[in-house]
Structure of Adenosylcobinamide-GDP ribazoletransferase:
Amino acid sequence: MEPEMPHTAPASGRSSRPAGFVRHLLLAVQYFTRVPLPGRLAAWVGYSPAMMKAATAHFPGVGWLVAGMSAAVLALAWWLLGGQHALAALVAVVLSMIASAWITGAIHEDGLADVCDGLGGSADRETALRIMKDSRLGSYAAMALVLALLLKAGLLALLLTGGLGQAVLALLVAHVLSRWAAMGLPQWLPYVGGSQPPRSVAGQGEGSKARALVADLQWASFGVSTAWALPAMAWLVWASGWATLAWTLLAMGLLTWRLGGIFRRRLGGITGDCLGATQQLTELAVYLVLAVRLAPSMPSVGS
């Protein structure tokens, strides 16, 4: 399942570079989240296939927004629950995960589920791609979602018991860097999810919507994505040192490389679901690295 394209009027005229940057960012927010834009602002943003492709570069920028809202819910719930018990940490984390899933429409979790169903359901490429387009949830998808969500909740709760600052750091870094890691795949692998070019904002098929995002993506887009990721890297170095950043990048890099190899061998390339799956799995990798790196310094609950 792919998210709906923003229903906006076509962009008219040529924009200045700052205005174009803002338009592309807001278009990315419209596509990758459920955050609504006022009608007049949405009309000003506009839409075209070229704009949508440029907006893809701001995928990690959207991660800042999603993580910020999720972290705000986490902090509020932790404060309201007293912040003194492990179960309070778990409840606060689950609420923040619900907020994150609502903001994004769970499109990345859906991508993980579809990829697991497709790759687990058939060794044949065409059958696997057909399964991935099926909206029904199979056993592989259900198992993957349950295990991924349990692992995410456990790791974030562990980080939260070591302090709210650690959990907020983990959320912001993981949401931004995981989206940056996913942006590396279109530079390496071809898009194989659909055969028709995008036609219009409304009424596009799932394949054409994803094609408008990632097919033939230019290296300049990855440069913009990296610019969004650099502040997260700098914050991680400031909070935990260069070694933590190195381990985080190594874990994400190896995982993305491995996933890309699987996608190339089994599917011949990537689909939009492959990007969602990569985002989810690399997000988990960041939480795991930070839990391992920060666990020795965690105080006991209530201390």
User: Anything to note?
Assistant: Residues 7-15, 195-206, 299-303 have pLDDT under 50 and may be disordered.
